[in-house]
Amino acid sequence: MICAEFAVRSDSVAATVDLCESLFGAEFALWLNDFEDGCYAFDFSDGDMLHILPNYTIDTTLPPTIRAVWPDCPQEASRLYFSGTDARSPCLSALLANPDIFVLYGPATIWERGIKIFEGYPPLPENGSPGESG
Amino acid sequence: MSDLSEAAHWKNLEQEIGYREFVAAFQTGCLGRRQSNGDDRGSKAGLPRPVLSRVLGEYRPFLNEVPLLPFGFRSAEAYVGFVTECHRLLRENGQPHVLVAIRGGGATGFSYGTGRVFDDDCGYELAVVGRSLFDQAKTLERSYSTDQRTCPIRERSAVAYGLGLNDLLTALRGIARRDISLIILRDLAALAARGPFTVLE
Known about the structure:
The complex is a heterodimer of chains A (134) and B (201).
Chain A: E1 2-8, H1 13-24, E2 29-31, E3 39-43, E4 49-54, E5 56-59, E6 65-68, E7 78-84, H2 90-96, E8 102-104, E9 108-112, E10 115-120
Antiparallel strand pairs in A: 1-7, 1-8, 1-9, 2-3, 3-4, 4-7, 5-6, 9-10
Chain B: H1 3-16, H2 19-27, H3 49-55, H4 76-92, E1 99-103, H5 105-108, E2 124-129, H6 131-138, E3 153-154, H7 158-163, H8 166-176, E4 180-185, H9 188-192, E5 197-199
Parallel strand pairs in B: 2-4
Antiparallel strand pairs in B: 1-2, 1-5, 3-4
């Protein structure tokens, strides 16, 4: 399983969802929860999955405080989580091909049966082998 | 579970969730506000009645009015299945001594942020309390978090894989038919500080 996280340069989560819906021809479903003020998700038929979340979290302290989840990104940005089974996935390729919009946040990771077998930046190894990571 | 192993389990759980420190802080007024109605039955919304009554039965003033059955479960059987699977998978993953609670709208019936009533579109927010798991999570996180809690951990995220919790999130989503995310908290005090919750047991 490949995991990659992207900071999305947009004005709001709604704008990010619109952008991804037009890019992938997908209709994202909204899940509501108090942790994150909502999460948009789409499950692709090939096993890829995208989650879009705001880059802020509300601490339910008194008084409540709002903080950026990824501290070095603005609160207005969105977080996009990709997970999939293939490094050549069209979805992942499309995200990596637009670095001006989708900024990889930290290294991508590849997991096999719960064990991390790769951690690094593109180009990603096609079969997850660290030896092919370049 | 034999009496001996059960006693050991509760002792380990008590240490993992910082129970004694929590009680001490509560008694000295450092946590929340204790209410009294004259017959020494205090009330503090959000405190985990089942655990408190089992781990420290003598501390009755903590007993509260938080419903034991979280919102969104269609029956008691569905809830029991969810809880059983949750604890089974945590045990399999090497975390038998943690406290798990539902917080947010699943515990209160409405969204803290918006006031929206908890319905079929709302997900569950699980809080897992345990020092060992928390320390492990801190080594994996890249997100904002505090010295008391992690950021929300989602299914199929690198942190979920790294902690071995992805199967748990997938299984619970399948059972509850809801989005599931979880945070890991260092101790019971951190959980209580974040508002109402219902312990899963």
